[in-house]
Amino acid sequence: MAKNENDIETSASFEVLPPNFFIQEKIGSSAQNLIGNEQLKIAEKCMQVLKPTIINALNVMLHDISTLARVRPRGVAPQIWRKAHEIRGMAGSINRKLLGRFGDLICKYLNDTDENFRPSATLITDLSVAANIAMSETADNDAELATLLEECKLAVEVQKAREGRSAEGF
Amino acid sequence: MSGLNSLHVLVVDDNAHMRSIVVAILRGIGIGTVKEAADGADAFEVMRAGVPDIVITDLNMDPIDGLDFTRMVRTAPDSPFPFVPIIMMTGHTERSKVIAARDAGVNELLAKPISARTLLDRIVSVIDRPRPFIRSNTYTGPCRRRSMHKDYAGPWRRSTDDPEEEMRKLKEREEAEKENPTVSKLGDHKHHIGDHKYHG
Fold it and tell me: Which of A111, A114, B123, B199 has the greatest CB tally within 10 Å of its CB?
């Protein structure tokens, strides 16, 4: 163990342990040597293989969001937020950036709300429909969808203002 | 056994699809043992059964999120391996969340959406550029100092510091202090280096 830290006139004391290269020792090389372009290509292929499964999962989540917005059970806002949060994380990983932005927009609408909050069913439904359209492979390059995203951003701000939750200056 | 095949990585995420992406990448590049857990509590149990070399965890999980899990790993008395490198995946890249992750003792942050490249980069980083480990009353985890302050004279200023050279300098300073107590001390803190062993 370290020597007694109380022998110095300080209120805070700490131990510093040197960097440990135990993983390098275990693999017998630097990671840079073992994880190069070849491994990157393999990793990208692995992600491609999973793409259809992830797209299915995203479809299910969007459907769940629409249902939750319509039924509005207790604690609906955190449930929708959570699904939208997963969508924004997963969508980008399979190159559906615009879809991720719609997921982000749903999260932004529901940020700082609690389980008693009753979100606008119309807005959530509109956002999930728009997100569904953004699921297509060409969506990221579609100018009309980019415009739709901007309009949805505005709709979220307007709705938040109606609910007294608008950002300053809106 | 050596090479990536000898590595053991634990992936913690309550979203099975995100987990499957990470697991597929890790298995694809030849990592030998990849285990999965759906939340922090589950992960802690998996760690008890076999200590991983690297943990990749999501931030947002129920009931124990990635931050609490990281704190448990770093500070719990029954933690299987407080020094394990932790890579945290998160969709929250706001400054407050990044600071919270850093202060919990995370080694590397991986912003979502993740890509194969960013994931592999973080793995290379924790293996090839490990940082000193700090244990104090208020923080346990990898050294949070990634840049050098011009007024800081202590050891371990950068991850590239040579441990032997820094040890030698530290001992020289301590000798000088013993001989002449008026010699300036190492800031407000005392560093203890070299008399600890990692468990890994």
Answer: B123
